[in-house]
Amino acid sequence: MPTLATPSSLLLTRRLLAVRTFSTSSAGYSTTTTVEMARSALDEVTDTGAFDRSPSTFRSSVSSDASARFTPVPGRYHLYVSYACPWASRCLAFLKLKGLDHAIGVTAVKPIFERTKETDDHLGWVFPTTADEEPGAEPDPFNGAKSVRELYEIASPNYAGKPTVPVLWDKQLKTVVNNESSEIIRMLNTEFNNIAGNPGLDLYPVHLRASINEINELVYDAINNGVYKCGFAKQQGPYDEAVTRLYEALDKCEEILGKQPYICGNQLTEADIRLFVTLIRFDEVRILAGKEVLQIILQ
């Protein structure tokens, strides 16, 4: 990979996170419908060797509309997360910024995948058996589930897909409301304002939506998901393509942030959070999991 001498922290991040030696020989909600999809990221690699993320499957919404199935009631919902997961960390950031942590509880799983059942070899997010087993992680307080996989099976007994975090859980109906982080953060931004501690903060303001959507599209494909495309690629071609797009996107973000304090102008928006939660964890997570860096950013 090319060596970049630019001292900027963002460009340094860009430089480090994708430098890897590659070898072609390396390795809507329903309770009754069987959902068949990838069980893990390793199942999301195509025949061409490229990583192709499966869509989220639970896509219901919390709405302040009185006729909605899921209404914004304090204490009704719970957020299951992993602190190692950038998608879940988006939701945690919104929860804190909007002042909703008093109304929506949070439980974190253990940070490293383990076997989710004794009957098969599936690896995924699991809960500790005791509160002091893993710092920051806690047993499931409501369902006694041993893994996120079990939560999905409580919500949909025939579920056969990828059990991911974040999970926005309805304690009243004992089901997954939504497991798509981009949709959960929009709900947290607007639908809970009547019970939010900071209802005046709008991270998706109308006058910036076109700019936010444009940046989100760039950042999601090339950076948020781009690091996975690098980490899980099994052929040289898809890997090179992902790395190139990653470099170009980070260059673009660096150019924008060199001219203004936030990625979409003079105020914090969801686009900043979506970028930040991926960049901040390269040192702690990507070296161990994605394997697309050779040294940490601090070096």
Automatic annotation (TrEMBL):
Glutathione binds at residues 125, 162-165, 180-181. The active site is at 85 (nucleophile), 228 (proton donor/acceptor). One of its GO terms (molecular function) is glutathione transferase activity. PROSITE patterns: GST_CTER. One of its GO terms (cellular component) is cytoplasm. Keywords: Signal. It comes from the Eukaryota. Residues 205-299 form the GST C-terminal domain. Residues 1-18 form the signal peptide. This is GST C-terminal domain-containing protein. It comes from Setaria italica (Foxtail millet).
